[in-house]
What does this fold into?
Amino acid sequence: MMVGFQEPPTTTTAISAAHFGFQCATTSAVLGRMISILCVWTRLCVLAGIDGIHQTEPVIIGISRNRLWHKWLPMVPMLLGIAVQGLATTMTNPALPAIAADLGMSPRARLWVIDVVPLALAAGLVAAARAGDQWGRRRVLACGLIGYAVCGLIGAAATTPWVLIAARTVTGCAAAAVLASVVASIGAIYAAHERVLAYGMWTGTFGAAAGFGPIVGGLLGTGSGWRIGMAACAVVAVLAAALTFRLLPDSRATAVHWDLPSLGLSVAGLAGCVTAMQELPDNLLLAAGLGFVGVGSLLGFIMRQLRMSTPFIAIRIFRNPGFTPNWLRAVAGAATASAAVYLVTQHLIQSRGDSPAAVGAALLPEAVGVVLGAVCSPRLAKRFGQAIVLTASVVLQAASLAWLSTDPSSILVPITGVGIGLGVLGTLAAAALFDAVTAEEAGHVGAIQEVGFALGNGLGVAVFGLLATSFDDGYPIAMIAAALTIAPLAHSRRRPRIAPVPERQRCG
It folds into this structure.
């Protein structure tokens, strides 16, 4: 997420050897516990929601088929990769003052340390998805995790700002490889209700990691503690890469057509749009120019795909009446949730004078809500139907945003509601995108989904953040606008019957 905290007026102080050792021990304990929780969570989530569901053919060779949870072992390295990404992305924000003081960063360099990761991630998503289709998603996921590890160690050892920025740039590219591979692998390995469960674990894990990241960053945000955090994430990434080769079955498309003009247009379009959104609050003219380039490139990309007999990304998927509404719900959910987190953060810091640590604690219920929504959504969808649960989640998120606009001093319940709504939307809407596609199209859907999330997060912060700063009472106006943005998507008609895909070709 492109959401950050303002820097508090802190100075760097030397830390003692005892304090340094305590940070090492604390980080190792937290990350070790996180690994064990992910393994147990994978098992418990599956056993809690799988009753009565038709079982598909196990995909792990050499593992007993009468052990149901063995089918879910592939989720362990994927969840570890998502957790590392969430922590590595969000723990940097509260630690930025210490990083800047340690490396002597200029204000512009500080912005690049934060902004370069979502920029590189968005620019690399399409290429990463197609690379997984051609060379195998297991291999691309492992390469992304190894890239995490290498860049984490380089960043931890950085002595100049630009070394750290370069490492963070490659980290963003590695994040694209991890995200694209995980999403496409889930779509290819699991089907029906199992896919919903898998997406619930994926969404919940990222929500938890993104919620705890600022807290971990705050704990390590003194002296050289940030270096320990980066190195620890690198160790976990290496473990996840090793488990990827051991536990994750490979999947790929049988025929991949690389088109360099399409690749260039996608990179230019996504990079231009993300950079424009980052510049929008500070430099409207530059943002307009970058936005023009980005939108123009994306339009050129779309037109080229529609003309190609073998498109680089199958834009025609949007013609499926069950695809576009769910994609819009996922994008709008991400946009309004990121806007809520950003606006509440600014309100707590600027209006109440809260410290970044206090803000992180105040926003923790949002992360808890994401986890609850993600874990409970498969059971709710099975009990009440996917359409009803999706509609209820949109209504809940819109009502929570409206509540935040009326009483910004009481955020516990509404910010939790925003998180629950996002957790349900991120699980059910994302899983629904794969319902009518074949395994050959899993990579296309994964890329389209993650591009939507990336653009949604950026647009939410940029548009609603700009709206909040344009009026004297901008905070409630922006929150109401966010609520009105997602509310119309609550209407959900029954999904039309689609000609069944042959079982051999079905995704999963």
User: Anything to note?
Assistant: The CA atoms of residues 301 and 307 lie 10 Å apart. The longest helix spans residues 17-49. Residues 258-309 form one domain.
